[in-house]
Design goal:
Pfam families: Glyco_hydro_47
InterPro entries: 6hp_glycosidase-like_sf, Glyco_hydro_47, Glycosyl_Hydrolase_47, Seven-hairpin_glycosidases
Family: Belongs to the glycosyl hydrolase 47 family.
Shape: globular
Organism: Pandion haliaetus
Structural class: alpha+beta
Oligomer: single chain
Order of helices and strands: HEEEHHHEEHHEEEEEHHEEHHEEHEE
Pathway: Protein modification; protein glycosylation
Radius of gyration: 20 Å
Largest sheet: 3 strands, antiparallel
Amino acid sequence: VFKIKAVQLAGKLLPAFNTPTGIPWAMVNLKSGVGRNWGWASAGSSILAEFGTLHMEFVHLSYLTGDPVYYNKVMHIRKLLQKMDRPNGLYPNYLNPRTGRWGQHHTSVGGLGDSFYEYLLKAWLMSDKMDTEARKMYDDAIEAIEKHLIRKSNGGLTFIGEWKNGHLERKMGHLTCFAGGMFALGADGSRDDKAGHYLQLGAEIAHTCHESYDRTTLKLGPEAFKFDGGIEAVAVRQNEKYYILRPEVIETYWYMWRFTHDPKYRQWGWEAAQAIDKYCRVSGGFSGVKDVYSSSPTYDDVQQSFFLAETLKYLYLLFSNDDLLPLDNWVFNTEAHPLPVLHLANTTLSGNPAYR
């Protein structure tokens, strides 16, 4: 029944790919099949994190059904991106699906970009490390990220900035904090035997993101935090001081725990769990809060879906044994839904999909 429903839903989504480039629209009318993009997204562009975060689900659906149409759609996106010129080796967040040209040159490992990079790595992992093209794209991307976006603050905190209008903005979003876990997950199999380097980088990002929590009144992290002058890992603007039950920091704690078993990650996760329970629990569930620096926070009255799918799941896994969902057998999609590593003996997912 779930397979049938998945096929029905995917069928409703396929018309979104009917663009001159094959880069899908952000939205599609399920009845008419007409697609469109967000009005605010750089002159009608599609968004990197949206069209770049379909790979795992579509490849898995082709595996389940034996129908290569889903696989072909996402491979086409990858081939197109591979051929394009990239400023400084970075992928801008906006791509026009009509012209095939980049929109404004804004690059981020946080919102608008984040899960595209995650899925390059996870495509390789999900393929039982056979999809070497995905691994190469990932390695190239994180080398560019490290060169152009990752910096150390005056106080010694490693952070990932955003490239905007030709300069680096010294600000990191809560969403970007997932990258600590990504670097750790990608350490094994990295180029030039740099596994130790990437594990260390993951640990430094985890530390910075923990500081963003620790420097608030509620011990919950803000939506974005700056590294300007004397200001470090702290939100400055009122509209960046909120916490909406986001999982990314805890996700990184979990990956770092799996790969290092350093007890501080469980300690940090427990701090976050206690803070969520203390300040976000309401009679009907859990709510986001509008200001993590206020000792009397106000609620936003929303329990986001990712709170159950990710935040609580990663906390649960952080305190579970490694044999629960071992990373050799399972790859988590960007919403923490586990998909199996496909041990496809005698089959290929690149070229001729001879599915079993």
